[in-house]
């Protein structure tokens, strides 16, 4: 099992025409050799899969990568009220330059670019 730190930064959009390195996530999660999320490794060590949300002007939030009936999500507190859903995370390839969509509890979706994997 190989846990990696994946940095996601908000991609270009109307609010961030150049994207932003000050808005995003650092995800610590298991990846397969080809760069996909390793769901079996995640199941064996769920509490090790963590996320840190950083957003300029706001305090950082730390939480967990979880899997629910609706799919993968970032969760910061017990319950689903604060979960940020991840669009088809099980199909994403984690490589610099690839994109991930995160849907906030409000329903707003934002696209993030993978900027590094360590």
Explain what you see.
This protein is about 5% helix and about 50% strand. A hairpin with an 8-residue loop joins strand 5 and strand 6. It contains 1 helix and 8 strands.
Number of strands: 8
Give the termini distance in whole angstroms. Answer: 14 Å
Structural class estimated from helices and strands: mainly beta
Oligomer: single chain
Cα gyration radius (Å): 13 Å
Q: List segments where confidence is low: pLDDT < 50 over at least 5 consecutive residues.
A: none
Task: Output mean pLDDT.
Answer: 93
> Could you give the order of the helices and strands?
EEHEEEEEE
Write out the strand line-up for the largest beta sheet, numbering strands in chain order. 1-2-3-4-5-6-7-8
The major beta sheet can be summarized as: 8 strands, antiparallel, barrel
Percent of residues in β-strands: over 45%
Helix content: under 10%
Shape: globular
State the helix count: 1
């Amino acid at each position: 099992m190989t846990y990696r730190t994946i940095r996601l930064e908000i991609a270009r959009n109307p609010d961030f025409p150049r994207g932003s390195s000050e808005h995003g996530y650092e995800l610590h999660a298991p990846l397969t050799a080809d760069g996909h999320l390793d769901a079996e490794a995640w199941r064996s060590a769920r509490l090790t899969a963590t996320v840190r949300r950083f957003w300029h002007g706001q305090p950082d939030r730390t939480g967990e990568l979880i899997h629910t009936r609706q799919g993968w999500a970032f969760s910061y507190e017990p319950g689903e009220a604060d979960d940020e859903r991840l669009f088809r995370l099980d199909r994403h390839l984690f490589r610099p330059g690839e994109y991930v969509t995160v849907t906030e509890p409000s329903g707003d979706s934002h696209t993030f670019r993978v900027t590094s994997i360590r």
